[in-house]
Specification:
The complex is a heterodimer of chains A (297) and B (274).
Chain A lengths: L5 H36 L15 H8 L2 H32 L6 H9 L6 H11 L6 H8 L11 H14 L2 H12 L3 H9 L4 H29 L3 H6 L11 H10 L4 H29 L6
Chain B lengths: L1 H28 L4 H4 L15 H6 L6 H31 L6 H13 L6 H10 L7 H4 L7 H12 L3 H9 L4 H12 L1 H17 L2 H6 L8 H10 L5 H34 L3
Helix pairs in contact in B: 4-8, 4-11, 4-13, 8-11, 11-14, 13-14
Classes of the chains: A mainly alpha (297), B mainly alpha (274).
Chain lengths: 297, 274
């Protein structure tokens, strides 16, 4: 134990006092609930029954007797695998376009940002109507192109496609993050490359991409976490239906907890979600040593 | 060179039209009559616009729209206040004060940012049920008074950038920690503070999952959840649903017009963390 001088002690006290709201919050709203979730996941608690310790039974049920867990995990994984890379690419490419020195570019930047300002519930209700099989404007437009009507919200594949589309439409924040990253790249690098006769395309690969990897890295982590906890969009768009075709993990968790009141089981699902998100984050962090460039050396 | 500019404009314009079209459709829907809304092929323009939809949606009998709108407003304002109060103080403690273990502790703040709130909703529900806090606004508002990591991070980053000399001269003038925060640091950190306020406002106004879980009474419900009740009603006037949805979307759009640069600033700072 290091001996603190009187002054250091006073500093420590003041510092801890200042950060105490966060400390209390993180203990009360994250740490205790997390421990409680684990504790409750070992019981068969519901609002109707008393606590009964059942060991790892919930986890065993989850992995062996509940096909909906696998189904919801599968849907969520597929959504993440499609949505996240598309969001990253789209954000990166569009930001490159929006970084050009063109007259009126600010207007374009605003246009691409506005959709993510629309309250999620409102925009989802809009998309639900636009995607309607019989009256929807999207089906009208594609029939004009000579394609048959698609019942967008009737099966897993088209529902995932729709949600990916909506998420791209609302990716304004991602575009801005990419744009600010691009603007942080010193123009002198491009000028030097021009002098060396390096083509614009090669500049993208050898200057822009490496210098943007820290931004892409953050977006990847945030995107993955976002995909795994996605709830509101699907809840309002299809409520998991028809016949669980779009039952994402978080929605299944919600239904177990607050519709079926299987709280013990729902807590086991929470813990699994925590483990998945944690594992993915660690995985991405580990891999980052290989592909993220932090300048300097 | 010329060709590159033209193709840039071309791609951007095509994409911009695709991006704007749903927005146009949104507001057009909110101004159509019920019959027009269900016409096929759909009408891309209607005249006269049915402006009456807006007051009709607001006063719709079966839904306490005004009440829920007010609830959301109050909840959002209190949450923004809580953010300013708690996140500022905590960010100050993590940036301008020197104490042993500060930076190690801040790593924990960043780590907790990664844990999704969704993971702890079920245990929190249990805790609140035991504390008899279900069906109150407490579960929705309280976290904002305990320095949510994200907003704290934004403010802390900006406080780190303020020159140390400013504190030092204030110390020589004999001011204490609190005076330094209020008179020296806060004015400098104002842009970040505004950005955090705007993000907190957006988050809370958008909040759907928590009110859905923690609030039962219609009289206490927020407008996000209320809107989905509205759309789920039997025999609903769908055009009114869209007017209601537009009313809910409007406040953020209006605030964006006035405080654009703070919106952008918050996002930019949040993108460069780590």
């Amino acid at each position: 134990m290091v001996k603190l001088s009187k002054k250091e002690k006073k500093q420590l006290r003041t510092g801890l006092l200042m950060i105490s709201p966060w400390l209390v919050g993180v203990i009360g709203f994250t740490l205790i609930p997390l421990l409680l979730a684990f504790g409750m996941s070992l019981t068969n608690y519901s609002f109707l029954s008393k606590f009964k310790f059942i060991g790892f039974q919930n986890y065993i049920t989850m992995f062996t007797k509940d096909p909906l867990i696998w189904k919801s995990l599968g849907i969520t994984f597929i959504y993440a695998i499609l949505a996240v890379p598309l969001q990253l690419m789209f954000g990166f490419l569009l930001a490159n376009l929006l970084n050009q020195k063109l007259r009126g570019i600010v207007v374009y930047r605003t246009i691409f940002y506005i959709p993510c300002l629309i309250v999620v519930v409102s925009s989802t209700l809009l998309w639900r109507q636009m995607l309607d099989t019989d009256f929807g404007v999207i089906n009208y437009l594609i029939t004009r192109l000579g394609i048959r009507k698609v019942s967008w919200l009737s099966q897993t594949a088209t529902i995932i496609a729709s949600t990916v589309l909506i998420s791209l439409w609302q990716s304004g924040k991602l575009i801005i993050i990419n744009l600010s990253g691009l603007q942080g790249i010193p123009t002198s690098l491009y000028e030097a490359a021009d002098l060396d006769g390096c083509s614009k395309l090669r500049q993208v690969f050898y200057i822009t991409m490496p210098l943007m990897t820290p931004v892409l890295f953050m977006n990847l982590i945030m995107g993955l976490i976002g995909a795994f906890k996605s709830f509101t969009l699907i809840k309002i768009l299809t409520d998991g239906g028809p016949d669980n075709a779009s039952l994402v993990y978080m929605l299944y968790l919600y239904k177990n907890a607050f519709v079926n009141f299987k709280l013990g089981y729902a807590n086991a699902m929470s813990i699994l979600l925590f483990v998945i998100v944690g594992a993915l984050t660690i995985l991405v962090f580990r891999s980052s040593e290989k592909w993220v460039y932090y300048g300097g050396e | 060179m010329k060709r590159r500019v033209v193709s840039c404009y071309f791609i951007l314009t095509v994409l911009a039209v695709l991006f704007m079209f749903p927005l146009y459709w949104f507001f057009l829907n909110s101004l159509k009559s019920y019959e027009q809304l269900f016409q096929f092929p759909p009408k891309f323009w209607v005249w006269p616009l049915r402006l009456k939809n807006y007051p009709e949606a607001y006063h719709y009998q079966a839904l306490q729209f005004g009440r829920m709108l007010k609830n959301s407003g109050i909840i959002t304002v209190i949450s923004v206040f809580g953010t300013v109060l708690s996140s500022t103080i905590v960010a100050y403690g993590f940036s301008r004060l020197k104490w042993r273990g500060r930076d190690q502790m801040f790593v924990i703040v960043i780590l907790t940012m990664i844990i999704p709130t969704e993971v702890v909703l079920t245990p929190l529900y249990f805790i609140y049920s035991k504390l008899h806090l279900l069906d109150t606004w407490f579960p929705i508002i309280a976290p904002f008074f305990f320095a949510k990591p994200f907003y704290t991070f934004i403010i802390r980053q900006s406080m780190m950038g303020i020159p140390v000399e400013m504190d030092e001269s204030a110390v020589i003038d004999g001011s204490n920690v609190w005076q330094r925060l209020i008179y020296v640091i806060l004015p400098q950190a104002k842009p970040a503070l505004m950005a955090a306020m705007i993000m907190a406002m957006q988050d809370q106004w958008n909040n759907y999952l928590e009110p859905l879980i923690f609030i039962n009474s219609n009289t206490k419900q927020t407008i996000s959840v209320g809107l989905t009740f509205f759309s789920g009603m039997y025999n609903i006037q769908w055009n009114l649903v869209f007017s209601a949805a537009a009313i809910v979307a409007l406040p953020i759009l209006v605030i964006f017009v006035f405080f654009q640069r703070y919106f952008i600033q918050g996002i930019v700072v949040s993108g460069v963390k780590g």
